[in-house]
């Protein structure tokens, strides 16, 4: 497998994700949240939100389909079986709530090679139904045994 | 409902040197529930035999679940999910089930209303996440 640095900058069609109330509850439960605004609509409304609030890391749920499209693109050539998740960044501009319709665009930000390892950096930018940017993710994947 | 053991959290984020801490013990079926909740069904997290075949000690925690614990240590201390502005970190080790995971952080500086917090996550003395840096609305 070779590193294909000329693919840097490649971008993918937007992928939509509709945030469901029960999905937020399921996710919040799985990560151990106890704040009621993630589970209880009344508690969320009392706190000023229109519906249950997604925990910040719920960004994984709505951005993963977009980043996977880029990671699994044969053009990019990530060997998924030898890939590990090296680093992760999220920046949140606003919270997401149940009922939001997200649209995420993935971009290949960087591909480099050193010491027999390939470093792939992907960016995902999510906007909501009001076209406001909600979250930006930077995903660093490391693939061993690249030559 | 499933319950986590030894749920423990504390902290505040007002001035440099303030600390935050969260401990949680993932139960035996945590990775199955998180796989369903997140959509990440990589078998290294849910199938012991598969994990061992690829050289792991057994099923391992999802890295992004561990990151969610780091995020939660900050949002709990800061008073809500809207307070966390950014989180950046490196994955260093494999997390295992049924062993306590602890996140510890310290406020490096406070600029205006924003605290910069450095943190790490460890399990049994092994560092799982290092160089975590967060921007959090201070309170």
Q: What's a quick, concise take on this entry?
A:
The complex is a heterodimer of chains A (147) and B (139). Chain A has helices at 21-30, 41-46, 59-71, and strands spanning 15-18, 83-92, 101-114, 117-127, 133-144. Chain A has 147 residues and is α+β, with helices and mostly antiparallel strands.
Overview of this protein structure:
Chain A is built from 3 helices and 5 strands, in the order E-H-H-H-E-E-E-E. Chain A has a 5-stranded antiparallel sheet with strand order 1-3-4-5-2, with helices on one face. Helices cover 20% and strands 35% of the residues of chain A. The longest helix of chain A has 13 residues, at 59-71. Chain A has helices at residues 21-30, 41-46, 59-71; strands spanning 15-18, 83-92, 101-114, 117-127, 133-144. Chain A has one domain: Hotdog Thioesterase (Thiol Ester Dehydrase, Chain A, Roll), CATH 3.10.129. Chain A has 147 residues and is α+β, with helices and mostly antiparallel strands. Chain B has 139 residues and is of the alpha+beta class. Chain B has a single domain (5-26, 62-137), classed as Roll (Thiol Ester Dehydrase, Chain A). Chain B has helices at 30-38, 48-53, 63-78; strands at residues 5-11, 19-25, 84-91, 101-111, 114-123, 126-137. Chain B has a 6-stranded antiparallel sheet, with helices on one face. The longest helix of chain B has 16 residues, at 63-78. The A-B interface holds A 23, 26-27, 29-35, 37-38, 47, 53-57, 60-61, 64-65, 84-92, 94-95, 138 and B 1-2, 4, 7, 24, 30, 33-34, 36-40, 63-65, 67-69, 71-72, 75-76, 80-82, 84-91.
- Summarize the largest interface: chains and residue counts: A-B, 34 and 34 residues
The ordered string of helix (H) and strand (E) elements of chain A is: EHHHEEEE
> How would a crystallographer describe the biggest sheet of chain B?
6 strands, antiparallel
Model regions low in confidence, pLDDT < 50 over at least 5 residues of chain A: none
Kindly report the CATH topology of chain A.
Answer: Thiol Ester Dehydrase, Chain A
**DSSP strand count of chain A:** 5
Strand elements of chain B, count:
6
